[in-house]
Amino acid sequence: MTRALVLFAHGARAASWAAPFERLRDSTQARLTDCRVLLAFLELMEPRLPATVDALVLEGVDDITVVPVFLGQGGHLLRDLPLLADEVRAKHPGLRLQVAGAIGEDAGVQAAMTDYCIRSLA
Q1: Phi and psi of 8, rounded to 5°?
Q2: How far apart are CA 95 and CA 82, in angstroms?
Q3: What is the rounded average pLDDT for all residues in the chain?
Q4: Which of 53, 35, 36, 118 is nearest to 90 (CA)?
């Protein structure tokens, strides 16, 4: 089984917007030496999620986890991402595709953001 982790972000018109997501991808990849880590976008930037999955499947990846790098479960995660996941699963029936919850809803991430907010008072 070949695994990959796809960090899924919204996307923006300004290329500089992606920099923190690229750093997250790179630092995650540095810790996961046996797993590909890629960044994909919902809109406005490339690569998009379906193209990213297509490329991974061509490389022989058969187990992909998508981590939405969103603060909460808004419309994009409640509607758009499930539709994209269904399309990907239909196109690649042998693929194991899992979708994690929004990164911002994780208790550890919330604690780190709280710490950051408190430190900003200094």
Answers
A1: -110, 115
A2: 15
A3: 95
A4: 53
What is the distance between the alpha carbons of residues 91 and 49, in angstroms, rounded to a whole number?
13
Token representation of residue 79? 């509607």
Task: Kindly report the number of other CB atoms within 10 A of residue 37's CB atom.
Answer: 19
pTM for this prediction: 0.93
Cis preceding linkage at 47, omega within 30: yes
Residue pair 66/6 in contact (Cβ under 8 Å)? The answer is yes
Q: Which domains does the chain have, with CATH numbers?
A: 3-119 (3.40.50.1400)
Residue 84 — left, alpha, or beta (φ > 0 → left; ψ -120 to 50 → alpha)?
A: alpha
Among candidates 18, 34, 81, 14, which has minimal Cα distance to 53? 81
AA identity, residue 68: P
What mean pLDDT do residues 40-48 have? 95
pLDDT of amino acid 1: 66
Phi/psi class of residue 44: alpha, beta or left (left: φ > 0; alpha: ψ in -120 to 50)?
left
